């Protein structure tokens, strides 16, 4: 099987590391930045030539522009989005942009607790592949067979994609709570409220509530929200601890706060989400505003 990675940053390279040992797989990769990896090809059209599976790991802020420059993907190839975000201009999720740009290809979403550092170490985990049919899922499943990534099927492609976006936003609050030294008890309250709100938001926008109780939902949320390897967690922690802040550009959660809220008919039903907006977008006093979100449990 020929597999091409579009976007070969840390996540893309980590996923590729699961497949490199398989004799029946040929890996190619394309990225705007040189990675020094032997499988990277400079010309994107050459990189996708003959591909049976194309995995996208481009940051959401650059996803739309990236698609404009891609030609030559075989119509028989399955396209997999590993990108978690919403396009700020169109309000579309990555899988929706793939379906629009490549209408003859089957599209899937890959999500779950898949921290890049742990994938590279071969530590076992589970993920969710959401697709419109099991035939598409089977292609992705076959590629990762006999690897440390075990995959489950979901037909809720919208809900799985939304869960990936939302967990980045709510992880900001997890890191914030730790940075403020609010303790384990309070952080557990943040977790519960995040799960409640995520589940409702997924339903309101058109996904299935049950998706929250999958690897792509609560699994991804907990892995990211309890890991200091997560940029979203690190950024939230730094705000709480009043440390020097890194660039916001690569913090997916920051870039999606306003976009998520714009999709909600009644944002007042989501007190933690609004608190996150006030703290990270409007510079509200962090501890006071976070506590205010829990006046009613």
Automatic annotation (TrEMBL):
NAD(+) binds at residues 7-12, 62, 116, 231. GO terms for cellular component: cytosol. One of its GO terms (biological process) is phospholipid biosynthetic process. Residues 156-288 form the Glycerol-3-phosphate dehydrogenase NAD-dependent C-terminal domain. SUPFAM superfamilies: 6-phosphogluconate dehydrogenase C-terminal domain-like, NAD(P)-binding Rossmann-fold domains. Residues 42-135 form the Glycerol-3-phosphate dehydrogenase NAD-dependent N-terminal domain. The active site is at residue 167. Keywords: Lipid biosynthesis, Lipid metabolism, NAD, Oxidoreductase, Phospholipid biosynthesis, Phospholipid metabolism. Belongs to the NAD-dependent glycerol-3-phosphate dehydrogenase family. This is Glycerol-3-phosphate dehydrogenase (NAD(P)(+)). It comes from Candidatus Uhrbacteria bacterium CG_4_9_14_0_2_um_filter_41_50.
């Amino acid at each position: 099987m020929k597999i091409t990675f579009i976007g070969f940053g840390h996540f893309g390279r980590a996923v590729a590391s699961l497949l490199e040992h398989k004799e029946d797989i040929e890996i190619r990769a394309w990225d705007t930045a040189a990675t020094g990896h032997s499988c990277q090809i400079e010309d994107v059209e050459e990189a996708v030539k003959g591909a049976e599976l194309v995995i996208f790991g481009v940051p959401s802020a650059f996803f739309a522009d990236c698609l404009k420059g891609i030609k030559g993907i075989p119509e028989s190839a399955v396209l997999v989005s590993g990108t978690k975000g919403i396009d700020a201009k169109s309000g579309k999720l990555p899988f929706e942009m793939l379906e629009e740009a490549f209408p003859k290809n089957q599209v899937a979403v890959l999500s779950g607790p898949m921290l890049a550092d742990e994938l590279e170490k071969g530590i076992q985990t589970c993920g969710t592949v959401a697709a419109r049919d099991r035939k598409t899922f089977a292609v992705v499943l076959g590629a990762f067979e006999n690897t440390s990534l075990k995959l489950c099927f979901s037909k809720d492609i919208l809900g799985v994609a939304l869960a990936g976006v939302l967990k980045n936003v709510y992880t900001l609050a997890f890191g914030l709570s730790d940075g403020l030294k609010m303790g384990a008890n309070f952080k557990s309250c943040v977790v519960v409220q995040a799960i409640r709100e995520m589940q409702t938001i997924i339903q309101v926008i058109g996904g299935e509530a049950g998706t929250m109780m999958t690897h792509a939902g609560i699994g991804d949320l907990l892995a990211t929200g309890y890991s200091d390897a997560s940029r979203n967690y690190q950024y939230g922690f730094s705000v709480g601890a009043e440390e020097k802040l890194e660039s916001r550009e690569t913090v997916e959660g920051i870039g999606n706060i306003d976009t998520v809220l714009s999709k909600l008919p009644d944002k007042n039903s989501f007190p933690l989400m609004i608190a996150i907006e006030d703290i990270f977008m409007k510079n509200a006093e962090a501890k006071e505003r976070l506590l205010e979100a829990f006046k009613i449990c």
